[in-house]
Amino acid sequence: MTREASAREATSEHETAARETAPAREVRVGTDSSKFPGAPENGAEWTLREVHRLGLEGVFFRSVLELSPTLDPGELRAVVQLAEDLGLYVEVGTAKVNPFAAPEAPEVRELGGGDYLRGLERLVVACAEAGVRELWSATANYKFGIPGRLGCDRFRTDVTWPEQLEATGKVLAGLGPLLRDLGCHLNLETHEEITTFELVRLVEEAGPDAFGITFDTANVLLRCEDPVAAAHRVAPYVRQSHVRDAALFLTEDGVRRFLAPCGRGVIDWPALLRPLLAHAPRLTLSIEGVMGRRFPLPVSIYDPEWHGGHPDLTTVELAEIVRLADGYRRRAERGEVPDRETLSQPVPVSERLAFVTESAAHLRAVLVDLARPA
């Protein structure tokens, strides 16, 4: 090989590496509003200013009603303008799209004059008119006070999960034309009750030109999915995120998940972020924190009925969840991370903000590493 050819090959390799790592330089790290200390009490403008003061780069407001309870156009635009003035991103949520969850959001039905779908449409239009077009939604609810699988809407006894998914698909079909006309995406969360397999099918059927996925990195563990494998599955459709880590423990009823700051749990962040950033180089990472507890929810891998409700579950990912739990146990025994007893205690107020800032620091360190040329 000539010196010139060697130089061209080296340049080509460098350009390829630069293309693969450049997306990490464009990612912004912010926070979800629902568990950010002080946000519910002080409102959207206070939250934006506080986030800016802390050096974070944006806010994912769980509901557009946080910006204006009456959907007043002037109030909505004022919040968005403040974010722009501060150099922050703003993303906003709408409401659940599973009609069987609709009775638990009467305010949306009221917005629609008794029509839940019309209420959803009003939320979407208000966001679009304010200049916000990446919109959160989810498919169902989780009752944290109900133990076992019945706390999850996936295992409701009055309606099956396949029936809920079918009804959700019809709602998406009804919303699609409006979303396309407004240039919006409604991004369904990897919420506690739904698998990434099911979300991908919903989005592909409803149309990726109007629908996407909000990737919650810790929720996929509750469906016994390997977070990295889940990231690869959803990556082509991810447009928003909820990022947090998790501790896993093997228990008498299977596996127990506790929320943890990014970098303090079982997730391999470089491996998880690479496929996401390859598809969405300007993806925002919105940290979802904790409130009074770390949500120790069960993954009932010893329950045959639980398995029967997860037709897409593979033994490979089940084994990975067990491996991750065993690895966390060994780290806890070495004193590197908190043990189960510690994580079972209430979260002190002082730690709730630290959850967000510590997560942001870890994510930024990972992004710096990913941005380095190979």
Output the keywords.
11 strands; 374 residues; 8-stranded parallel sheet; TIM Barrel; 3-stranded antiparallel sheet; alpha/beta
Overall morphology: globular
CATH superfamily: Divalent-metal-dependent TIM barrel enzymes
Within the CATH hierarchy, at the fold level, what is the topology? TIM Barrel
Q: What is the number of helical segments per DSSP (H or I, 4+ residues)?
A: 13
- For the termini, the CA-CA separation is 23 Å
Please state roughly what percent of the residues sit in beta strands, choosing from under 5%, 5-15%, 15-25%, 25-35%, 35-45% or over 45%. 5-15%
- Domain unit count: 1
The strands making up the biggest β-sheet line up spatially as 7-6-5-4-3-2-1-10
Instruction: Please write the string of helix (H) and strand (E) elements.
Output: HEHEHEHHEHEHEHEEEHEEHHHH
Second rung of CATH, namely the architecture:
Alpha-Beta Barrel
The level-1 CATH class: Alpha Beta
| SS class | alpha/beta
- Based on CA atoms alone, the radius of gyration comes out at 21 Å
Uncertain runs:
1-22
Task: Give the beta-strand count.
Answer: 11
Taking the sheet with the most strands, its summary is: 8 strands, parallel
Note the topology.
Layout: H1 3-21, E1 28-32, H2 39-53, E2 58-61, H3 73-86, E3 89-93, H4 106-111, H5 116-129, E4 134-137, H6 161-182, E5 185-189, H7 196-206, E6 211-216, H8 227-234, E7 238-242, E8 245-251, E9 254-260, H9 269-279, E10 284-287, E11 297-299, H10 304-308, H11 315-333, H12 340-343, H13 349-371
Parallel strand pairs: 1-2, 1-10, 2-3, 3-4, 4-5, 5-6, 6-7
Antiparallel strand pairs: 8-9, 9-11
Keywords: Isomerase
InterPro entries: IolE/XylAMocC-like, Xyl_isomerase-like_sf, Xyl_isomerase-like_TIM-brl
GO molecular function: isomerase activity
